[in-house]
Amino acid sequence: MEHTITAGTAPSLTAETAPPARPRVSRRSLVPYVLIAPGVIWMLVFLVLPILMMVYVSFWTQTTFAIKPILTTRSWVNFFSSTTYVASLWTTLRIWLIVLAATLVVGYPTALFVGLFVRNKTLSTVLLVLCVIPFWTSFLIRVVAWRPMLGEQGAINIILRSLHLIQHPISALLYTELSVVIGMTQIYCVFMVGPIAFMLSRIDPNIIEAARDLGAGFWRIFARIILPLSMPGVVVGAIFVSVMVLGEFATSAALSGRKVNMLGNIILTQVGSLKWAFAAVVGVVLTIVMGIVVSLFLRIVDLRREL
Amino acid sequence: MADDLVLDGVTKRYGALTPLDRISVTIPGNTYVSLLGPSGSGKTVLLRVIAGFEAPDAGSVRLGGRRLDGMAAHLRGIGFVFQNYALFPHLSVRDNIGFGLASRAVEPVRDPAALRRRVDAMIALVGLEGLGERGVHQISGGQRQRVALARTLVTEPRLVLLDEPLGALDANLRTRMRGELRRIREQLGVTFLHVTGSDTEALAIGDQVIVLDRGTIAQHDLPDTVYNRPNSAQVARFLNCYNIFPGRRDGARFVSEIAAFPLAESVARGDGAGREPAYCIRQDLIEIRAADAPVASGEAALPAEFIASEYSGASIAYFFRTARGETVEVEAHLSHRRPVELEPQRRYTLAWDAGRAVVFA
After folding, report:
1. Candidates 1.10.340.30, 3.50.50.60, 1.10.3720.10, 3.40.50.720; CATH matching A31-306
2. Would the pLDDT of B225 be above 70?
3. Which residue of A has its CA nearest to B97?
4. Nearest to B86 among A204, A216, A228 (CB)
5. pLDDT value of position A6
6. Angle between the A177-201 and A227-246 helix axes, to the nearest 10 degrees?
7. How do residues B114-140 score in pLDDT, each as one tens digit?
8. What topology does CATH give the domain B5-226?
9. Mutating which of A214, A218, A300, A303 best tests the B interface, going by the most B Cβ atoms within 10 A?
10. Alpha-carbon distance A112 to A117, whole Å?
11. pLDDT of B269-317, one tens digit each?
């Protein structure tokens, strides 16, 4: 009896005293938009608009001293019918692949050491900072410093000669594609080491001990556990290196004596001679190449899941 | 026996710390041994030394007569179940379990059909049917625990080391997994060495219990011996079911700061006399009486003030304070007595059969 009474009165009581919960429509819902607004505006004004403009300008009509907004495909036809420019596209892709492979070959073991074998967090941070030390000097000095290193009278030739390993200085070291690759590998290696070392340092040491306990030797553990778990780092590092190498012009100009022409160098000379439409064509080609490269890398791993 | 694990004088030092101090113990094959110790007692270090993740500074480790120290971890044939499971996050349940068989350096299973058959058998043994293709993040904590166990057991180790394997599970699941672990071990006939910080888990799961205290073995006995006859006050403390009064022996009495207790003929005496003389009485052997109630001969008594009680279903814990401010806990099982109504801040007499005490003096 008592039970039924309380059961009957309780709901009406609460209905009277407690007002229905009001959905929280507050200023808070605006907060996310306010937060991203500066970034979005910045990107629109300084990235999206210029890119659209670049695509537009690439179809303008170029005369020797002037450029008119009359749409034409002349610049595009010029680019793809010229062996010089197509060759520079291939040079860019070749140097990119070689530098990418070189940074991976040099960077992965370094990252493995810093991220996995050094278990002391302070020490591994110190080692990563050491990798960044070259960036404390200017880009120009870093590039130019390769000349006394690789030149005919440079350090490497002097050492090899004093060790009697060679009779005549090796001239192929400087002002060749090799010197460009060496210089770029040195500069961009750290962008490969960082992300990989980060992913490796996130691997629970127990996981590796578990694999060892289950009977796997080092190479098996590396192939089945460490490498797959570090792939997101490899992909992020590869994207960093690719984007920077594909757009390079300074290292290739300084270390090749202007013999190696990458797309970036072409853009620079075309802009220098006021050929805006043609420079825009090369810019669009470069952007498309980067887009393809980045989307291919993103196919390898699902970064949203891994990070 | 052929699968005995024999530790002889195993010592491990880290700078000034000595987490393992001359550990000598024989763990027979085909048994379930639980290793109880508080955090910092060296129990995880001991497992890691046996597994080969750490090298001992002195002493030897033998399994079935074969010397293990100096041998690489992946060649020892010892299974290790980690506290946090340490599953391979990028592999499915099936690939986690199959990893050891497919990837081990010694006699890897290369035939996919054979691998599949053995993994399936193990999935069935630990009760993970139908979850083989799931990722290890798509299953529950208890299921992950089973994957960790299956991954180790499928490689057929002779000895499995479990480092607080139930620590991350909720209480309900923990109790169920105890039975599961015992069943699985019996079915395989291997040795489990199970590290735990929980006294009830250690007593419930082990055929034998080893109590570790500051890097040394404090006691190695059957569970009921450890429970009823701890051989030092420290072991009694780890069991969480004794009231422990420090003091000294004086003829036929044990004199502590709060009271003098008569020592019965049949009293259990430990040999830990030199280290820490103490009088220990189990919480569930104490009877609560009115302050002026008589005390029979052969009984020990202690006046104390009631503070509070804690009800936990099948039993109830009463907390008392002695004149010197020490807390005494009394546990009453409600299956054979009704809870008594006690008045806070009132004095009562706590009495017990003097022969049931465990005395180190």
Report:
1. 1.10.3720.10
2. yes
3. A214
4. A204
5. 43
6. 140
7. 999 999 999 998 888 899 899 999 999
8. Rossmann fold (3.40.50)
9. A214
10. 7
11. 655 445 678 899 999 999 998 888 888 888 888 999 999 999 888 889 9
Q: Is B151 on the interface with A (CB under 8 A)?
A: yes
Average pLDDT over residues B172-194: 90
Q: Alpha helix locations (H) across A82-120? A: 83-112
Is the minimum CB–CB distance between B337 and chain A shorter than 8 Å? no
Q: So what's the pLDDT on residue B49?
A: 92
**B-chain residues near A214 (CB < 8 A):** 74, 79, 99-100, 103-104, 151-152, 155
Of A206, A224, A228, nearest to B103 by CB-CB distance is: A224
The answer to whether residue A36 neighbours chain B at the CB level (below 8 Å) is no
Burial label, B22 (beta-carbon count in 10 A; 0-12, 13-18, 19+)? middle
DSSP A46: I
| pLDDT score, position A307 | 58
Domain range list for chain B:
5-226, 240-360
For domain B240-360, which CATH number applies: 1.10.287.110, 2.40.50.140, 3.60.15.10, 2.60.40.10? 2.40.50.140
| The pLDDT value given to residue A7 | 42
Beta strand B208-213 with B216-221 is: antiparallel
Residues of chain A with pLDDT under 50: 1-15
Q: How many CA atoms lie within 13 A of B58 on its CB side?
A: 11
A contact residues 222-241, partner B, Cβ 8 Å cutoff: 224-225, 228-229
Written as six digits, the tokens of A90 are 């291939």
Residue-by-residue DSSP string for B154-200 = TT--SEEEEESTTTTS-HHHHHHHHHHHHHHHHHHT-EEEEEES-HH
**Structure tokens belonging to residue A214:** 């289950």
Contact state of B90 with A228 under an 8 Å Cβ cutoff: yes
pLDDT for residue B33 is more than 90: yes
User: Which of B63, B99, B109, B160 would best serve as a mutation to test chain A binding (most A beta carbons within 10 A)?
Assistant: B99
Q: Number of A to B CB contacts under 8 A, please give it.
A: 74
CA distances from A80 to A85, A245, B29 (A): 7, 22, 77
> Side chain identity at A208, as an amino acid letter?
I
| Residue A301: closest C-alpha in chain B | B90
pTM of the predicted protein model: 0.79
Is residue B155 within 8 angstroms of chain A, CB to CB? yes
